[in-house]
Amino acid sequence: MLYFDNNATTQLDPLVLQLLLPFLQDQYGNPSSAYSFGRVAAKAVATAREQVAALLRCEPSEIIFTSCGTESDNSAIQSALLVDPDRKHLVSSKVEHSAIIKHAEALARRGYEVTWLDVDSNGLIDLDELEQAIREDTAIVSLMWANNETGVLFPIEEAAEICRSKGTLFHTDAVQAVGKVDINLERLPINFLSLSGHKLHAPKGVAALYVNRRTRFNPYLLGGGQENKKRGGTENTASIVALGRASELAFAALGEESVRVKALRDRFEQGLLDTVSSVQVNGDRTRRLPNTSSLAIDGVDSEGMLMLLDQRGICCSAGSACTAGSLEPSHVLKAMGFSNDRARGSLRFSFSRFNSEAEIEQALQIIPKAVEKLRSMTRGFLAA
Ligand code: PLP
Asked: Is the pTM here over 0.70, yes or no?
């Protein structure tokens, strides 16, 4: 199998698994228990918190462990709304993940107002538009650090600075960015940041929310007072330990490994641009994650390509999703101004440090033939 869908999820790093397993076996103590068996778990959670904080260059006390990126995103927004209930306006962008969009849409149905920022054909927002969108009653601005479909990087530092100068809380959904680009929260006026374990070789179902120490926070999950009273629920010790170790490994891989992954992506992308006619890259080619390639392939439908590539052992994602029996073009590619046809002909390939040059060369043998096959089938269908 050639696994090129690392923005969907990643394989567990064997070194992470090694550390996780004892906490599913013998070390099953509850971190809140006062006896020494519980304290082993509490210590492991504390170490993981330090490891995640080191990856983001923040204080361990600024990290709250959660169950998923979606929970982190929802918690940040809910907190902002609870802290200042008179503020009923939110700002976000049209290309966010559904963890933001669906939540904001639900809030809009409950009387909140949402301003959705446009993106240009490169997938980038206009900072002037952001500045104009912020009002006296804006509770929070939420913008993703990196887009999950195109890999496009928003100008987060500038956006955060604008929010700070306007006195508005700023959240960034950095689920796709953490572990792929260097993030230094020491010098950024960011109030909240979301990350998710399964995008950086930790298990699914564990994530974190960074809350700046000077930002007031209202818990989303109320319960036993865990996570320093910021998130109720017994800690998922094994997965938290895994997220800590995965963060440490991701930090170590940010240098040379990241350059290697980018070289793999570039070789893959250029290889297809050279051998397949009418292929275009979706999104800004420089302000982009090093691991992501979103390609519009003229004359193919991405669902058909996905199935054909699946038969040939390649995993990737389509620029459309089957909703209620019809192919819905991606909201991200639509927001970039692309036609339904371009969106329906788009595929996303996303790589990781577990991919090799040999895999890229193999894929470059398979994909052009698959495109040709699908195009000739379409031509035959149209001629019939
Ligand atoms: N935000 C972005 C940008 C994502 O890509 C994802 C997952 O695909 C999420 C949020 C949600 O993360 P999780 O699957 O951990 O809930």
From this structure: yes
